[in-house]
Amino acid sequence: MILVTGGAGFIGANFVLDWLARNDEPVINLDKLTYAGNMETLASLKEDPRHIFVKGDIGDSALVADLLARHQPRAVINFAAESHVDRSISSPEDFIQTNIVGTFRLLEAVRGYWGGLSGGTRDGFRFVHVSTDEVYGSLASADPAFTESHRYEPNSPYSASKAASDHLVRAYRHTYGLPVLTTNCSNNYGPYHFPEKLIPLMIINALAGKPLPVYGDGMQVRDWLYVKDHCSAIRSVLEAGGPGEVYNVGGWNEKPNIEIVQTICALLDEFRPRADGKSYREQISYVKDRPGHDRRYAIDASKIQRELGWKPVETFETGIRKTVQWYLANPEWVSHVQSGAYREWVQTQYADTAAA
Ligand code: NAD
Ligand code: TYD
Fold first, then answer.
1. What is the model's pLDDT at position 339?
2. Residue 61 class from Cβ within 10 Å (0-12 exposed, 13-18 middle, 19+ buried)?
């Protein structure tokens, strides 16, 4: 079996659902269930004996050591993190605790477990650390995309905490020989995305008749990858990646934020036209910029394609259509998310950003 951390969050839950849809190898899912963890996403696995859910913290050394000893997983895949840049700016403490201290404690527990393995079990064990392209910092418009050897230059408390965790993972390979692999991926989108992030927030605000808050001039560029493509990249890295290696994962799909928002508006105009016949674009509202806002991220994903044969299946055009359709087809999931802590967060975040 495998141990997944953070498997009730956006990417982790998509990974667990895809994993169990593809094979019968059981998953232990360790998740603290912060505001971002959502058991409704995993509802289809409720009675499934292949899914063992444990509510707990990756920083709880005794709990993690016990889970490893009892279940003897062949791999650990670490998704657990605080993941939202804006939250890291307003309250960085949780990011330091989970992303740095939590990853450190998880690595220590895994090192203890792996040290007790022998033979093929020890040789075959893998620790996959799921990280972000944001550790590389911001690019100017003409700069080449990030490769795996790009220097680390994180700019937000989120990216700095992820960078620190990547360094710890690397050090555990170098110092202790732990068979780690790190992925640095660009922005994901798709089903079950918590609506604090750009794409789900825009879809949900649009349908609710609310403003679509575009930070600054809306010309910040991100590379976007459909979440299921990210999950397939992680499976490739787990099965065929070289211990100690780092793989950049991306969609070859750079777009400025305003274009993303306009595309969402156009799709909603097509699928669910506004009652007044006007376009959802009317709701676009430029607001105060994010402090220290990174201008551009771009991923060069040629290493993973060359060495592991992975490339994304979805284009942005196909992936965003599926995503908008998913949100339209799942109003219950959305409304349950909205009735929780999310509501309070939105009020704090947007209270003073009403106009640019
Ligand atoms: P998310 O915020 O949706 O989910 C994080 C999950 O981790 C939640 O279920 C939460 O309850 C859990 N968690 C938080 N702290 C924990 C702790 N201390 N112990 C156990 N569980 C804990 O995040 P996501 O978007 O699914 O991202 C998953 C991983 O992928 C993160 O490491 C993130 O840095 C990385 N990543 C995300 C993106 C993206 O676009 N979302 C892109 C690249 C990399
Ligand atoms: P986000 O989804 O928070 O991901 P990240 O900051 O990790 O890239 O934001 C994506 C981009 O969209 C980023 O440039 C910030 C911008 N953005 C807005 O313009 N308005 C919003 O309400 C949000 C949440 C993000």
1. 82
2. middle
Options 31, 57, 82, 134, the catalytic residue: 134
**Number of folded domains that form the chain:** 1
Whole-angstrom Cα distance, residue 59 to residue 99? 9
- Mean pLDDT per 10-residue segment, the chain (356 residues): 98 98 98 93 94 97 98 99 98 98 99 98 98 98 98 98 99 98 98 96 97 98 98 98 98 98 98 98 98 98 98 98 98 89 53 46
- Per the annotation, the verdict on 133 as an active-site residue is yes
Which candidate, 232, 186, 234, places its Cα nearest to that of 79?
234
Nearest CA to ligand 2 atom 10: 198
Domain encompassing residue 101: 2-355
The model's pTM is 0.96
Q: How far apart are CA 81 and CA 84, in angstroms?
A: 9
SS3 state of residue 240: helix
Query: Which residues are bridge partners to 282 per DSSP?
Result: none
pLDDT of residue 344: 53
CA–CA distances in Å: residue 256 to residues 104, 107, 216, 221, 317: 35, 37, 12, 4, 15
Nearest CA to ligand 2 atom 14: 220
User: What confidence score (pLDDT) does residue 355 get?
Assistant: 39
Given 158, 192, 280, 327, which residue is catalytic? 158
Which atom of ligand 1 lies nearest, measured to the CA of 31? 21
Beta strands in the chain (DSSP E): 2-5, 27-31, 51-55, 75-78, 126-132, 180-185, 187-189, 212-215, 221-226, 246-249, 254-256, 284-287
CATH number at residue 266: 3.40.50.720
Q: How would you label 310-328 residue by residue, b for 16+ Cβ within 10 Å and e otherwise?
A: bebebebeebbbebbebbe
Please report which ligand is nearest the Cα atom of 61: 1
